[in-house]
Amino acid sequence: MTVRVLLVDDQPLVRAALSMVIAEAEGLEVVGEAGDGAEAVRLTGELAPDVVVMDIRMPGVDGIEATGRITAAGGATRVVVLTTFDDDEYVYGALRAGASGFLVKDMALDDILGAVRVVAAGDGLIAPSVTGRLIKEFAERPAAAPAPERPRIGGITDREREVLALVGGGLSNTEIAERLCISVATAKTYVTRLLAKLDARDRVQLVIIAYETGLVARSR
């Protein structure tokens, strides 16, 4: 199955470079390019790409606002933010808007291509260079009420609560299985249940829920 990609960046040279790399990558195809957020939203509606690779700082409608519009539309398209700026507020803003990944442009090209495939497959990914700092920052923030559009976590079991806290702490399914002395398949099942119960698009959104409900902070 070929992953259809829409590239969004206000710098034509960046788009051209990414387009060339993706064209040579197995299983990936560029179906369109946009120079700003408004055009990205329009083309997403017309082309229905699997993944939008989105810059943040652009004239007019920026990447965070465009991401919010795309994800709010409720389609199957997922957004990966790819930017030079790894400021914590940009990260949180992008993920809160519904992005399934946050990458920085100094990552290896193979890692960027791999991230696009991961997100297209339904998972989420944050660049390793910002993951640890992001987790630390939100674990130290005062607990906030859950976002009103999300179900409260009172409807999940104690074990699912444990798993959600570990997902929020950045652990993989394998690490969760080791921590809780369960199989990897069982850990994956718990994560799948959490995605359904909490109406989360992917693992990244579970991390946000864990922070917003104070679950990560309380577990430390």
Sketch the topology as an H/E string, one letter per element: EHEHEHEHEHEHHHHHH
Largest sheet: 6 strands, parallel
Radius of gyration: 17 Å
How much helicity do the residues have? 40-55%
Average of the residue pLDDT scores: 82
Measured between the Cα atoms of the first and last residue, the distance is 42 Å
Number of strands: 6
List segments where confidence is low: pLDDT < 50 over at least 5 consecutive residues: 143-151
GO biological process, one term: phosphorelay signal transduction system
Keywords: DNA-binding, Phosphoprotein, Transcription, Transcription regulation
GO molecular function: DNA binding
Protein name: DNA-binding NarL/FixJ family response regulator
Descriptive account of the structure:
- The protein folds into 2 domains: 3-136, 3-Layer(aba) Sandwich (Rossmann fold); 142-218, Response regulator (Rossmann fold, 3-Layer(aba) Sandwich), CATH 3.40.50.
- Helices cover 52% and strands 13% of the residues.
- The protein has helices at residues 12-23, 37-47, 63-72, 88-96, 109-120, 128-140, 158-168, 173-180, 184-197, 203-212, 215-218; strands at residues 3-8, 28-34, 51-54, 78-83, 101-104, 125-126.
- The chain has a 6-stranded parallel sheet with strand order 2-1-3-4-5-6, sandwiched between helices.
- Helix 5 links the parallel strand 5 and strand 6.
- Helix 2 runs parallel beside helix 3 (63-72), helix 3 (63-72) packs parallel to helix 4 and helix 8 (173-180) crosses helix 9 (184-197).
- It starts with a strand and ends with a helix.
- 39% of the residues are buried.
- Residues 4-120 form the Response regulatory domain.
- It holds the Pfam family Response_reg.
- This is DNA-binding NarL/FixJ family response regulator.
- Keywords: DNA-binding, Phosphoprotein, Transcription, Transcription regulation.
